[in-house]
Amino acid sequence: MQLTKKLKEKNKKVVSVISGGNIDVLMISSMINKGLIRRDRIFSFSVDISDKPGELAKVVDLIAELGANVVKLEHNQFKNLSRFRDVEVQITVETNGTEHIQNLIETFEQKGYEIIKIKTKIN
User: What pTM value is reported for the model?
Assistant: First the structure.
């Protein structure tokens, strides 16, 4: 909902009170999430890893070393049955912005992983 030109007052300071009575918390949450995505503070990607014990831990440890925070992770061994030795992991992380994402991608590639960016949907 856009608030531009909703008030008739011009050249006056106006403040909007946001309280529990006049806000939809789901709308506020949605607005915050969209803002984080637009500012590259949320990054979603997939990476193929070997389907062996400990491989997922290596990926998560690397993310932690790089200072990103995992907010969602999907490890599905049965998603792509044409891969016999690998499994795709889809990960969403909180970042500090564009440079942080670039550093994450470069570091993963230096370690031999191929990062595939996932387009985060903003309605």
Answer: 0.73
